[in-house]
Design goal:
Elements (H helix, E strand, L loop, with lengths): L3 E10 L2 E11 L4 E5 L6 H8 L7 E6 L2 E2 L7 E3 L11 H11 L4 H11 L18 H13 L5 E5 L7 H18 L2 E6 L2 H7 L2 E5 L7 E5 L14 H15 L8
Parallel strand pairs: 3-8, 3-9, 6-7, 7-8
Antiparallel strand pairs: 1-2, 1-4, 4-5, 9-10
Helix pairs in contact: 2-3, 2-4
Length: 252
């Protein structure tokens, strides 16, 4: 497990400010959800952490080491990006092969994880035969097998129907409780953030420098029954009120 540290990080696309003076620490093994309006810089946050772009100011560290280029975290983008000509096993092994792991060993590692990720019996299927939820499981498999202690998940359930989304949320929590990797999870959905995370980072509109961390004092394991908890409803209402507040200070 590894801690993540953002210290006074700012970033611009050209002349347009995206992130302004962000300071944040994510503890080892913590599940942090990031919520904010479209265009506020949520995906940029992950790109900075993954070393795909560099901040104009501030520093970023993972496990105490400065981020200088990619390769130190595992990033799962919004789309599953499965290759249609590769089977489930072959898609799951892709990143391992790119890391230089021999193909035979990479496929063996995939085979050891298929049952744990709910993919038993689907190893030789092609992506076109899979449901949206199963495709996401394959994408998770590919990401987890990289062996990185930090997982960056960019709205992985955004395109799924409500029932499949809830099922995969519960599945992801169970998987995280087994692995205890440090997770940054991007979402537009406050309910999803509260269901999954230890803490939630609220981000204001692009370039405003408005951020707020909210702990989630709800017992685990969480699942569909949590949605009916009055404490869950009150916390959801508070976060939505802040996100919909156009200007002024957020509650601390």
């Amino acid at each position: 497990m590894a801690a993540i540290q953002f210290a006074n990080v700012s970033f611009r696309w050209g002349a347009e400010p995206i992130l302004a003076d962000l300071t944040l620490t994510v503890e080892p093994g913590e599940f942090l959800a990031v919520v904010g309006p479209s265009g506020c810089g949520k995906s940029t946050l992950l790109q900075l952490l993954a070393g795909l772009v560099d901040p104009q100011a501030g520093r970023i560290r993972v496990g105490g080491r400065a981020v200088e280029g990619p390769g130190h975290v595992a990033l799962m983008p919004q789309r599953d990006a499965l290759l249609p000509w590769r089977t489930v096993r072959e898609n799951g092994a892709l990143l391992l092969e790119l890391q230089g792991v021999p193909r035979r060993e990479a496929l063996w590692r995939v085979d050891q994880s298929l049952e744990r990720l709910g993919l038993e019996g689907w190893g030789d299927a092609y992506p076109g035969a899979l449901s949206g939820g199963m495709r996401q499981r394959v994408a998770f498999l590919r990401t987890i097998l990289t062996g990185q202690s930090v997982l960056l998940l960019d709205e992985p359930f955004g395109a799924l129907d409500a029932l499949t989304r809830l099922q995969l949320q519960e599945w992801l929590v169970q998987l995280w409780e087994q692995e205890r990797q440090t997770v940054l999870f991007i979402t537009h959905d406050v309910e999803e953030a509260l269901l999954l995370a230890d803490r939630v980072l609220l981000m204001g509109a692009r370039g405003t420098g408005r951020y707020r961390l909210q702990s989630v004092p709800l017992a685990r394991p969480r699942g569909r029954a949590t949605l009916a908890d009055p404490a869950f409803g009150r916390l959801k209402a508070e976060l939505l009120a802040d996100l919909l507040q156009p200007e002024g200070a957020w509650r601390s």
